[in-house]
Amino acid sequence: MAANADKNAPESQFQKLGDVVENNEEGPIQVESMCMNCHENGETRLLLLRVPFFRDIILESFECPHCHFKDNSIKNAGEIQSQGIKYTLDVQNDSDMQRQVVRSDVSIFKVESLGIEMPKGESQLTNVEGVIQRIHESLSSEQPLRKAQAPELHDALVPLIDKLKAILDGTGFPFTISLDDPTGNSWIAFNTQDKNNYRVSHYNRTHEQNEELGITADAEAVKYEGMPAADAGDSFDDIVNDQVYVLPAECPACSKACEVKVKKVAIPYFKEVLLFGTNCAECGYRSSDVRVGGEIGPKGQRITLRVLNQVDLSRDVLKSDTCAMHSEELDLSVAGSTLGSKFTTIEGLLTEVRDQLRATIFDIGDAGGGDSMASSDKVKWDSFFEKLDKAISGEMPFTITLQDPLANSYVQDLCAPAPDHQITAEEYTRTEEEEDELGLKDMKTEGYEEDANEEQTS
C-alpha cells in the first residue's frame, strides 16, 4: 500500500540542480510582463528549483527588449517558518568562500569582522564570495561621487574597501559573517568538516518582526481574549515545584493569543530549572524550552560521560542553550546554539541530533542524499549516521562531552551521593571568546552604583 501511495503521489514541479541541466530542453516558464522602467512589455522567466539540503525556491529573471532593463531575484516557494534563523560562519579559506548562500529579501547579511551590513530588499542565490563581491562593488562604485560631495565619508570607507579587496584576493582570512532571517528561509551551506566555525541558532520572532512580515492579526497589540489574567501577587517565591502554571502569550509563528505552560522542577544535586511549553491552538505551533535559575558561576564546566549500555542511554540530561557537545568516537561536534536547550535523555539527545542533521543533509523527500551530493561526502555522511545509529541502539560504546561556559548543564549521576566512575566533571576557565559571546566582558557587577551617581551629578 505504501509503495502504491508513493507512485500515486503528485510529482513535484521543482527540479534539482542536476536535473535542470539534463532537462534543459523544457526550459523555464516564460511570462509576458510590464517593464517597470519603460512601461513596455518585457519577459519574465521563472525556474522552479530545488536547492540541495535546503528547500524549494523560484528563480526570477526579467528582461525588456525595448530599454534593455534586466533584473533577477529569488523567492522562497515555501511558507514562512515558525522561527527565525541566524547562521554564523568563520570563513577560514578559499573553500569557505565557495559555500552556497540563499538570501531572502528580508534577511540581513553582515561581515561581522568589519562591521558591514548588507541592507534588506535584495534576494540572492550565490556563494559567500558573490555576496562579498556585491558589497565591494556597491561601496566602490560610489567612491568618486563621495570624494567630491562627502570627503570624510570617502576617507572612512577606504580602509573597509581595502579589507574587502583583501578578502576577495584571498589574503583577508579569517573573518566572520552572519545571515539573519526572521522568516527562517535563508541558508549558508555547511560541510562535513564544520565544528565550532559554523553555528546555527533559531529564535522566536518579535511582534514587530511579525508585523513587518505581514502575519500579525492586530498591528496595535495582541488582545488575549478568554485568557486567564496573571495574578499580580505571584512571584518566583510563590511558584511551587512540579505544579503547572498557564500564562497568556503571543504565538511567535502567527501572532495570535496562545498559552505558555511553566513548571518548576528541582533536579537533585543540581539546581532548580523552569520548563516552558508553548502550544498555539490557532496555527498548531509547539515548542519547549528549559531555563536554569541561579547566578552565573566564575568558571565553565566540562562533563564527560562514558556510555556503555542502555542504562547509560536512559540517563537524564539537561543541555543548556550555551552548551556544546562532542564525541570523538562518533565524529560528532555540535555548537552550543545549534539545538537550543533540552531536558531529555542521552538517547533522546542523540536522536534529535541525528534527525535534525538527516533532515538538513539529505534532499527533500530523498532519504538517500540524492545525486546532488558528491560521492565522497555521501560516503562520509553514511558512515557518520551508521555510527550514530549504533550508538543510539546501544550497540556501540562511546564517550560524550558536554562543555558549558555557564555551567548550566547536567548529566544524571546514577550513584549519587556516591561518586559515579563513568562521569567526570571538571571546571575550566572561560576563554575570552566565550566571555565576549556571553556578554560577560561588558558586564559590571561591582561599583556600578558609583558610576550611576556620577552620571546623575554630571
TrEMBL record:
<feature type="region of interest" description="Disordered">
    <location>
        <begin position="421"/>
        <end position="458"/>
    </location>
</feature>
<protein>
    <submittedName>
        <fullName>Zf-ZPR1-domain-containing protein</fullName>
    </submittedName>
</protein>
<dbReference type="Pfam" id="PF22794">
    <property type="entry name" value="jr-ZPR1"/>
</dbReference>
<keyword id="KW-0862">Zinc</keyword>
<dbReference type="InterPro" id="IPR042452">
    <property type="entry name" value="ZPR1_Znf1/2"/>
</dbReference>
<feature type="compositionally biased region" description="Acidic residues">
    <location>
        <begin position="448"/>
        <end position="458"/>
    </location>
</feature>
<dbReference type="GO" id="GO:0008270">
    <property type="term" value="F:zinc ion binding"/>
</dbReference>
<dbReference type="Pfam" id="PF03367">
    <property type="entry name" value="Zn_ribbon_ZPR1"/>
</dbReference>
<keyword id="KW-0677">Repeat</keyword>
<feature type="domain" description="Zinc finger ZPR1-type">
    <location>
        <begin position="33"/>
        <end position="190"/>
    </location>
</feature>
<feature type="compositionally biased region" description="Basic and acidic residues">
    <location>
        <begin position="438"/>
        <end position="447"/>
    </location>
</feature>
<keyword id="KW-0479">Metal-binding</keyword>
<dbReference type="InterPro" id="IPR004457">
    <property type="entry name" value="Znf_ZPR1"/>
</dbReference>
<feature type="domain" description="Zinc finger ZPR1-type">
    <location>
        <begin position="249"/>
        <end position="413"/>
    </location>
</feature>
<keyword id="KW-0863">Zinc-finger</keyword>
<dbReference type="InterPro" id="IPR042451">
    <property type="entry name" value="ZPR1_A/B_dom"/>
</dbReference>
<comment type="similarity">
    <text>Belongs to the ZPR1 family.</text>
</comment>
<dbReference type="InterPro" id="IPR056180">
    <property type="entry name" value="ZPR1_jr_dom"/>
</dbReference>
<dbReference type="GO" id="GO:0005634">
    <property type="term" value="C:nucleus"/>
</dbReference>
<dbReference type="InterPro" id="IPR040141">
    <property type="entry name" value="ZPR1"/>
</dbReference>
